[in-house]
Amino acid sequence: MDSPSITDHEFNQIQKLIYNIAGINMSPIKKPLVMGRLAKRLNQHGLRSYGEYFKLLDSGRHPQELQMAVDLLTTNETYFFREPKHFDFLQRKILPSHSRARPYRVWSAACSSGQEPYSIAMILANHLGENPWEIIASDISTRVLDKAHRGHYPLEQIEHIPKEFLTKYCLKGIGSQEGTFIVDRNIRSRIKFSQINLNNPLQRMEKVDLIFLRNVMIYFNAETKRKVLERMVETLKPGGYLFIGHSESLNGIYDELISIAPAIYRKD
């Protein structure tokens, strides 16, 4: 079955649905992305239009399909040690002053397919070793969380991983797994993966020392950004840090944190 085109009205319906669920603003330039990612779902259900698919999602009778649509429309490309200045700051400025007797806790929000939390984990393992540390890694998409939990990636994704970390924390696949690698089990065991919708009130969680909230807020409007930040900063310990994407800013949105460096903030 050939996939139909999406009309402006149908795009607006799906646009509002995703905004209401995830707080994400999809501009009209995202029309090709919506068509490309949802076309197979229309074919799967034998539907003739995106309007029919919206009715299926909006009926409330197909929660699994709704989650599938959210997964497809909110997943973003990522890679290991993306925006390396943040990881350098963590290694040089934060961890050396941390008391190893006290647990160090990081929240990787919107962790996608896991490259960010595993990058953080390699640094924590290298600096803190067997001392107490843990990472909470969350995303709205159950599909990418499943992939992240496995920690299994194509071999070409080693490009940005430091050689020292590759040797210590990654295992190259052989035989049927040739062309892939997996993150070491001891690293994976320190990460707790959870589905969290940042657009909803957060369940109570233990305070964290550092939050990675990178390349997420670009999809939110100003009011959604403010509400998300208010909720998340509540989970941050005094003296803790927030990292956002280098293309993002808190200017005019949230002024309760101290700017330390580009895209790096600290809570008093």
Structural category: alpha/beta
Q: How would you write the strand order of the largest sheet?
A: 6-2-1-7-8-10-9
- The unreliable regions are none
Global geometry = globular
Key structural traits:
268 residues, alpha/beta, Chemotaxis Receptor Methyltransferase Cher, domain 1, Rossmann fold, 2 domains, three-stranded antiparallel β-sheet, 10 strands, 41% helix, globular
Briefly summarize what is shown.
This protein has 268 residues and is α/β, with parallel strands linked by helices. It has ten helices and ten strands.
Description:
There is one protein chain. By secondary structure, the chain is of the alpha/beta class. It has two domains: 8-74, Chemotaxis Receptor Methyltransferase Cher, domain 1 (Orthogonal Bundle); 84-266, Rossmann fold, CATH 3.40.50. Helix content is 41%, strand content 18%. It has helices at residues 8-22, 31-45, 50-58, 63-74, 84-94, 115-128, 142-150, 163-169, 185-188, 222-234; strands at 104-108, 133-139, 152-154, 170-172, 180-183, 191-195, 208-213, 236-244, 258-261, 264-266. A seven-stranded mixed β-sheet has the order 6-2-1-7-8-10-9, with helices on both faces. Helix 6 (115-128) links the parallel strand 1 (104-108) and strand 2 (133-139). Helix 1 (8-22) runs parallel beside helix 3. It is globular, with a radius of gyration of 20 Å.
